[in-house]
Specification:
- This protein is of the alpha+beta class.
- The chain has helices at 2-14, 22-28, 33-44, 48-66, 71-77, 83-94, 98-104, 154-161, 165-174, 238-254; strands at residues 127-133, 136-146, 182-187, 198-208, 218-222, 225-235, 257-259, 264-271, 277-288.
- Strands 1, 2, 3, 4, 5, 6, 7, 8 and 9 form a nine-stranded antiparallel beta sheet that branches.
- α4 (48-66) packs across α7 (98-104) and α5 packs across α6 (83-94).
- The termini are close together.
- The mean pLDDT is 87.
């Protein structure tokens, strides 16, 4: 996986003025575009699209400062059809107008070329298992919320707090299959998983395929497949988020599995009254690499 990500970085550099053919590279490397983008985003801390934009503007800034070509020529060379479009992208990355940078030589925000390396000594113990699951359903109360990588997501917190207290008990009583307990489900997550991008969050439980669904609940149909299950225990949500990050940096590069499209599920098995600590299981849909 690490070598695949470094090949992706090389591809970006070779085709900096155009969108890289991630799907073609993934196929050639025997993986999927979905997994490649998810791993890049998790390890780089930014979606691939943002990295491409930053690298493109880093290289373009050198052309602007040199002042040897007119701005339209520079814009076209770096994949933009007009000076206006180029200028907007330039300002978004560098925080300054093209004309100001050409006159003053800065300010510039440089994006170095990334290089991924595998740390042989794992920093986070991984309590994991891989299970086969038949088709099942995730039912509960769903909402569209923005993605937040670190800390408590206030939008999710608000969604859960708005539910009557007795509704949590009702949902828990409806659950009749694994993943067990009350679930935190994230679905429709973009492969790049950019901070602020929207996803579907569902607070609910898992039920078998033939379980009747109450009319007031949303339902996500989950096809049969394999799941990697990671057990966590400690301060919440920090321990869970650390483990989630470690799946990309340590577990997937070291194991013959890759992510497949589907919801990610957090099962809360036990927790403190104030939710300051919890025992959880993180369920991620996987397939053989």
């Amino acid at each position: 996986m690490i070598s695949a990500l470094n090949r992706l970085v090389d591809l970006v550099e070779e085709h900096l003025a155009e969108d890289p053919d991630v799907r073609g590279l993934a196929t050639a490397l025997g993986t999927t575009e979905y997994h490649l983008r998810r791993m890049f985003s998790s390890l780089a801390g930014m979606p691939l699209s943002e990295y491409v934009r930053r690298r493109r503007m880093t290289v373009a800034a050198a052309d602007v400062v040199r002042g040897e070509d007119d701005l339209l020529s520079i814009a076209v060379r770096h994949g933009y059809g007009s000076v206006e479009a180029f200028g907007r992208a330039f300002r978004a990355v560098h925080g300054a107008a093209v004309g100001d940078v050409r006159r003053d030589g800065g300010p510039l925000r440089t994006q170095p070329q990334l290089r991924f390396r595998l740390t042989v000594e794992g920093s986070t113990p991984m309590d994991a298992r891989v299970v086969d699951r038949p088709e099942f359903r995730l039912i509960g109360h769903a909402a569209r919320v923005p993605l937040i990588h670190e800390g408590i997501n206030p939008h999710i917190q608000q969604h859960i707090s708005a539910l009557p207290q007795e509704e949590h008990g009702r949902l828990k009583a409806l659950g009749n299959t694994d993943p067990a307990g009350l679930l935190q489900v994230c679905d429709d997550v973009a492969p790049d998983a950019a901070e602020g991008s929207e996803l579907t969050y569902l607070h609910g439980v898992a039920v078998t395929r033939d379980t009747p669904i109450p009319n007031d609940l949303h339902c996500i149909e989950v096809p049969p497949g394999r799941w990697a299950v990671f057990r966590t225990a400690g301060p919440h949500p920090q321990t869970l988020q650390t483990t989630w990050a470690a799946t990309a940096s340590e577990w997937f590069p070291s194991n013959p599995w890759r992510l497949r499209p589907g919801p990610s599920v957090v099962s809360v098995l036990d927790r403190a009254a104030d939710f300051s600590s919890a025992v959880c299981e993180l369920w991620l849909p996987v397939e053989p690499a």
